[in-house]
Amino acid sequence: MAELTTIDLHHGPCSSTTPYTALAVIGARLTDPVRAALSELGFSIFLPRPDGFAATRSEEEARRIRK
């Protein structure tokens, strides 16, 4: 979870004209705290995978600048 702020800073609306809308997480489980942290960044669809999980958010949510 500590890396989410850095990822959003470098690939989010403050740094890109096309901010990221999907994450593929390998080697970590989708726990309630991880889901909550991703939800704060606008992610709303979570899919478990054998090696981790995927999370997606809408383009509108990706473009939103959060404080």
Q: How would you describe this protein?
A:
- The longest helix has 9 residues, at 32-40.
- The protein is globular.
- A hairpin with a 2-residue loop joins strand 2 (45-49) and strand 3 (52-56).
- The protein has 67 residues and is an alpha+beta fold.
- The protein is 33% helix and 22% strand.
- The protein has one domain.
- It has a 3-stranded antiparallel beta sheet with strand order 1-3-2, with no helix packed on it.
Summarize the structure.
By secondary structure, this protein is an alpha+beta fold. The protein has helices spanning 4-11, 32-40, 59-63; strands at residues 22-26, 45-49, 52-56.
Q: Note the main sheet.
A: 3 strands, antiparallel
Using only C-alpha atoms, the radius of gyration works out to 11 Å
The number of domains is: 1
Tally of contiguous helical segments: 3
The helix-and-strand class reads: alpha+beta
- If strands are numbered along the chain, what order do they take across the biggest sheet? 1-3-2
Assess the beta-strand content as a share of residues: 15-25%
Contiguous low-pLDDT stretches (5 residues minimum) are: none
